[in-house]
Every structure is written in C-alpha cells, then in structure tokens.
Specification:
By secondary structure, the chain is mainly β. The chain has no helices and 18 strands. The chain has two domains: 112 residues, Immunoglobulin-like (Sandwich); 130 residues, Lipocalin (Beta Barrel). The strands form three sheets. The chain has an eight-stranded antiparallel barrel with strand order 11-12-13-14-15-16-17-18. Strands 5-7-3-1-9 form a five-stranded mixed β-sheet, with no helix packed on it. Strands 2-10-8-4-6 form a five-stranded mixed β-sheet, with no helix packed on it. 29% of the residues are buried.
C-alpha cells in the first residue's frame, strides 16, 4: 500500500528560457510498508523548467536531518529527465527493517548542475517511511460473547467489572473497533464503551464511561480501562476469539477518584 501526498506544489513555471530550474514536483510523500511485506517503492516527481533534446541528470542528496537509517531505504543519487520532457521521476524504496508505525523521515535535496548554468530549487522533499498493518473491513465485527477470566475489583459493588455479556463490535476507524458494554453488570450496569486500536498485531485498549457517573468523588473523575503490562495480540487470519488484558481503575484520572491502584482484568471475546 502506498500514498503520495503533496503538501505544497512547486510554483516554478514551465517555460522555454536560457536557464533551467530543476525542482521536486511535490514537497512530501509517504512510503507505507505493510507488516508482512519487505519493502514498498514509490515514485517522486522531479521536473525541469525547460525542454532539451538530450537526457539531463540531476544529483540527489540525502540531508543529515533525516532520521531514516541506511538499511531502511534505497534511493539513487541522481535522477534523469528524459530528452524532450519536462518531467523525470525518482524511485524511493522503504524497507521494513526496524520500522514502527510512527515512521522515520528521509529528506532529499537536488543539487545544482543540470545543464550549463542550470540551478536546483532549494525546496526539499521529505518522505515518511512507516510500518502499516491494514485491517480487513469485516475483520473483528459483529456479536461477541465477553467472559471475564480474571481480575478482582477493589470494591465488591463493582465485582465482576465485566462478567459475562454479549456485545456488538462495530468499525470505528480503519484500524479501530468499538463496543458498548455494561460495567459492573450485576449491580451498577453503567454505560461504558471500549475502543480497541489494532496496531500491527497488538491491541491498544481505551475504555470509558459514556453516560451517567460512577465514581468516588461525585463524578469529577471517572473510572477507565487502559493497557496493562501484558500485551494483547491478534492475527488478521482469525477473528473467532481473543484474549484481552487491560487495567481497570487505570491510574490517576481514570480511578474514579477512589485513590486505588489499577488491577488487571483478562476477558475473552468469542464470536457468536
């Protein structure tokens, strides 16, 4: 999967004149390498302001401000603009080596020297090389049975926090799934929602109250759920069941103003 996004189009005019200006056709791009791939290649436009009856070569430099390591990209040190054309292209390949979803940057600059007296625009081109993990649209959706496997709440009135209940999981974003659930279903039955971010085979957990209040401080601070130290994983080849670990009363600002420590819950979610 790849995207080429221009944040600022060059304003250099195309004209027949004595001096040639070489410039990038876009100021930025994005190279997205999928989790199960080794690399992705995109094309960066490099243009000239004049025509010529011979091929023209422009040198390309990687600036030191780049954060990409040498084994995370491959790009030529020059680009050719064909004879009779204003337009050339530069291939950039991003490799999966040590990539994260945050990504790394690669900033390129053209060097003077195209034709006699030709100059290069000072405008640079910055590519972001990042790991992506696309999720099929129908993956992890529909009705699931939640069963709480472990976790003892600090107060008997909220035990069990999840218990056993059916929920409907819906798509809330390209890589996120959300379901409403009853918190403390045997007593309070508070209206909560949990959003699971599917981040390259690992879940990120965000659970929060949706309406009403359930707290120790009159509603000033609500109870919430967030990731625990146990990593919850998934595989896009199977969405029949999941084991998900997270903290309840998940720290300051998410402890309901009760002053208690987070505790870990494990739930299983089984597709119905």
């Amino acid at each position: 999967m790849l995207f080429l996004n221009s944040c600022e189009e060059s304003q250099s005019p195309i004209y027949d004149g004595e001096q040639t200006l070489a410039y990038f056709g876009s100021s930025s791009s994005r190279v997205e390498v999928e989790l199960n791939a080794t690399s992705t290649t995109i094309t960066i436009p490099v243009n000239a302001s004049t025509l010529s009856d011979v091929d023209r070569t422009v040198s390309v430099t990687v600036l030191e401000s780049s954060t990409a390591a040498a084994n995370q990209y491959e790009v030529a040190n020059s680009v050719t603009i064909p004879a009779g054309s204003y337009f050339g292209s530069l291939d950039l390949t991003g490799f999966i080596t040590d990539l994260t979803t945050t990504g790394v940057s690669l900033t390129l600059q053209l060097e003077d020297g195209i034709d006699d007296g030709g100059v290069a625009s000072p405008n640079t081109h910055t590519a972001t090389i990042a790991l992506v993990c696309p999720i099929p649209e129908t993956y992890f959706t529909g009705t699931y049975l939640i069963e709480q496997q472990s976790g003892v709440a600090p107060f008997a009135s909220v035990q069990p926090a999840f218990g056993t209940q059916l929920v409907d999981v819906v798509v809330s974003g390209p890589t996120s799934r959300t379901f409403d659930f009853l918190y403390a279903p045997l007593n309070f039955q508070s209206d909560f929602a949990m959003t699971l971010i599917l981040a390259c085979e690992e879940f990120q957990v965000f659970g929060d109250i949706q309406s009403g209040s359930l707290s120790c401080d009159g509603g000033a601070t609500q109870i919430g759920q967030r990731n625990s130290s146990n990593v919850s994983t998934y595989s896009t080849t199977d969405d029949s069941s999941f084991s998900i670990f997270f903290n309840d009363f998940a720290g300051p600002g998410l402890d309901g103003g009760c002053g208690v420590n987070p505790y870990e819950i494990e739930i299983t979610m089984t597709k119905q």
